[in-house]
Amino acid sequence: MLDLVDKPKAAIRVGDTEKVTINLGFVDLGHIDLLVSESVYANRSDFIRTAVRNQIARHGEVTRQSVARKGVELGLRRYDKAELEAARASGIRLDIRVLGLASIAPDVTPELARAAIASIEVMGSLQATPDVKAALADRFL
Fold it and tell me: What's the superkingdom here (predicted)?
């Protein structure tokens, strides 16, 4: 099992990444370690991040078509208390679709989240308080 916790360079800050654990065969891991020892990559995580980015780029057209078809927002999308209160006040319930990081502000109550959010689909990561996540549990697609 490979644990992706080592972080190359100071450019990556806490909160910029999410830890993922994968299983690799000994031969694959040996190849990675060889490339690291030859200074092709800074460390195992650097190799794996590069491999992931290459595959994402390779399938970029599929991603673009899917994002356009599904109306997904790319990158970081923050939902603050004022935005959710405005949606609730106008009687509009949000259908949240994010590829990247969706963040619901810590001061958003579970009651406000339920009143303002009709559905939520996050391909990536959702940052919200445990109470808000629990309140929205039946709205995840």
Answer: Bacteria
9: left (phi over 0), alpha (psi -120 to 50) or beta: left
Extract the tokens encoding 68. 């356009």
Q: Of 116, 111, 103, 100, which is closest to residue 134 (Cα–Cα)? A: 111
Q: Are 19 and 4 in contact (CB under 8 A)?
A: yes
pLDDT per residue as tens digits for the range 59-87: 999 988 988 888 899 899 999 999 999 99
Query: Each residue of 34-47: b (16+ CB within 10 Å) or e?
Result: eebeeeebeebbbb
Q: Per-residue pLDDT averaged across 9-13, rounded?
A: 42
Closest to 16 in 3D by CA, of 44, 42, 54, 45:
45
Q: What is the pTM of this model?
A: 0.70
State the Cα torsion 10-14-75-53 to the nearest 10°: 50
List the end-to-end C-alpha distance of the chain, in Å, as a whole number: 30
